[in-house]
Design goal:
Layout: H1 20-32, H2 42-63
The structure holds zinc ion.
Length: 65
Amino acid sequence: MTCPICGKATNATARPFCSKRCADLDLARWLNGSYAVPSDDPEDADELDQALDLERTRSEKEKRH
Ligand SMILES: [Zn+2]
């Protein structure tokens, strides 16, 4: 089985993904309603971190409603 995000081999601890990062990316993709295509480009990793930070900020705001 391969990671649906990046196509690498699945890690048993992060199934069905290869890593926590890909699991987070999949979650962020769902939450943001957009399909980000990941790559090994470090800049993409930065974008993922930024997207996750944005999502966390938004979630925090919604909790305070
Ligand atoms: Zn992956």
